[in-house]
Design a protein that fits this description.
This protein is an alpha/beta fold and about 180 residues long. About 30% of the residues lie in helices and about 20% in strands. The chain has one domain: NAD(P)-binding Rossmann-like Domain (Rossmann fold, 3-Layer(aba) Sandwich), CATH 3.40.50.720. The longest helix has 13 residues. The structure holds NADP nicotinamide-adenine-dinucleotide phosphate. The site of NADP nicotinamide-adenine-dinucleotide phosphate (NAP) has 25 residues, from helix 1 and helix 2.
């Protein structure tokens, strides 16, 4: 798959490395922007308050399937008129959109391939994004677990504070797994 990663930091760079190892071709874009028109999937991995600026510097996003990994901290809000960054992203691209990879620690990405069982990767978004989210989660070592449609992206963005609270309450950085009862 041809993938464009917007934001080549901890999460964007880390996922790009894993996807390249799985055989995908990844174009890594930073503040200078670029052209995403040849990609079949786009990962947005910039600071949550930089989403508008980041998308405005990238061409060829129309109709693209976008996986939005951004979180909003410290009172930061989505762009005016939107409940979530992910819904803003969809308003720009018009393509299938998912909030994904926002609830996993980038620092652990390099160890996920060696896990005894696949950790979960929560996502919320459009049905049309399901195949891409499932495949790219799998190819990064995770199993996608759906939280709901795109209207649940705001709920997912709000989980960042919970994730940090768990981490800071003794567990440290962690992976998680949500599994059906058949696995018990
Ligand atoms: N770190 C995690 O564990 C983690 C996990 C899940 C989700 N997230 C979320 O993922 C996003 C990125 O986090 P991160 O830890 O990867 O941050 P990071 O390491 O600071 O990387 C952010 C990247 O975004 C780029 N950037 C900033 N403004 C931009 C713009 N206007 N246009 C294009 N690129 C821009 C930065 O470029 P420069 O290098 O030029 O500054 C940098 O490469 C955040 O929303 C975060 O909440 C993080």
């Amino acid at each position: 798959m041809n993938i464009t990663v917007i934001g080549r930091g901890n999460i964007g760079g880390g996922l790009a490395d894993l996807w390249e190892r799985a055989g995908h071709r990844v174009l890594r874009l930073g503040r200078d922007g670029g052209d995403a028109s040849r990609s079949e999937a786009v990962l947005l991995a910039v600071p949550g308050a930089a989403v508008e600026a980041a998308l405005s510097s990238v061409t060829g996003l129309e109709g693209k399937t976008v996986l939005d990994a951004t979180n909003l901290y410290g009172g930061a809000r989505p762009p005016a008129g939107f409940s979530s960054n992910a819904e803003y992203v969809k308003s720009v691209t018009g393509g299938a959109t998912a909030k994904a990879f926002s609830t996993n620690f980038a620092s652990l990405l390099g160890r996920v391939a060696g896990a005894r069982v696949r950790p979960s990767n929560l996502w919320s978004g459009d049905d049309q994004a399901d195949d891409v989210v499932s495949r790219l989660s799998h190819d990064a070592g995770f199993e996608a677990v759906r939280l709901g449609d795109l209207s649940m992206a705001a709920t997912q963005e709000g989980l960042a504070g919970t994730i940090f609270a768990i981490s800071q309450s003794g567990l440290g950085e962690f992976v998680y797994r949500m599994a059906p009862p058949e696995e018990l």
